[in-house]
Amino acid sequence: MEQMLRFIVGIMGNAASLLLYAAPMLTFKRVVKKKSTQEFSCIPYINALVSCLFYTWYGLPVVSRGLENFPLITINGVGVLLESLYILIYLWFSSSERKKGVCLMAVPAIAVFCVTAIVSSLVLHDHHHRKLLVGSVGLVASVLMYGSPLVAVKTVIKTKSVEYMPFYLSLFSFLASSLWLTYGLLAHDVLMAAPSFLGTPMAIIQLILYCIYKNNKPASEELVKIDLEKNAGKFTLKQQVINGPN
To answer: Which residue in 114, 155, 219, 233 has its CB near the most CB atoms, within 10 A?
Structure first.
């Protein structure tokens, strides 16, 4: 019964994670349309890519026993493809300074994954120690992935606008982290469940902020409105001076 329940939760987790990984498509559609990354940060996508790499490797028979964690392989494999695509689009439309920043973050992170994969497959010779190594390093990567929305949260609080924190990204993050937390607990796998202990409350915070600021206009729109009102006031005053008092 527990195995069946874990399998069902794994399928649901796959569906929620697929929606989570697909949600930034709307953001990058906007980036392509405007041909600019604007104030969007690439940090969440780099962290997500690294996390997906680690958990794809964690689910493979090299680390896990057989196909006991097969749901991890499927969804994180898709995540690797999508997050790589987002990063490539970001690099294409970002400034040279931002390109440099993305490379300085992505290259060392991917190098850490490669070293971990080599050590776990060639140096360690049993599944227990392989899972311990890959799961521990993957845990750090997942904590960074779930913690990276703090960048967006900071922007939301500063601008009092949710323009750069898409709602569906926060919603699907909550659903995915909640389901994978349940999956990890059912599997009695602390390393798998641990990242979601941070991811779930972080997603709840984002949803709360969205509810608070969802009706606020972006700061840029407010500035334009103020400028228009000022110009309208000056125009009225000028008209009064030209026409004289009635």
So the answer is: 155
Tokens representing 13 are 């987790």
Q: Which residue has the tokens 């110009």?
A: 231
Which pLDDT score is estimated for 217? 66
Long-range contact list for 38-43, CB < 8 A, 24+ apart?
38/164, 39/155, 39/164, 40/90, 40/164, 41/148, 41/151, 41/152, 42/87, 42/90, 42/94, 42/98, 42/101, 42/102, 42/105, 43/105, 43/148, 43/151
Kindly tell me the burial class for residue 235, based on how many C-beta atoms sit within 10 Å of its own C-beta (0-12, 13-18, 19 or more): exposed
pLDDT attached to residue 200: 86
* Tokens standing for residue 36: 């600019």
Contact assessment for residue 102 and residue 44, using Cβ atoms and an 8 Å cutoff: no
Q: Extract the tokens encoding 111.
A: 């190098």
Q: What is d(CA 51, CA 139) in angstroms, rounded to the nearest whole number? A: 8
Taking the C-alpha atoms of residue 136 and residue 99, their distance in angstroms, rounded to an integer, is: 29
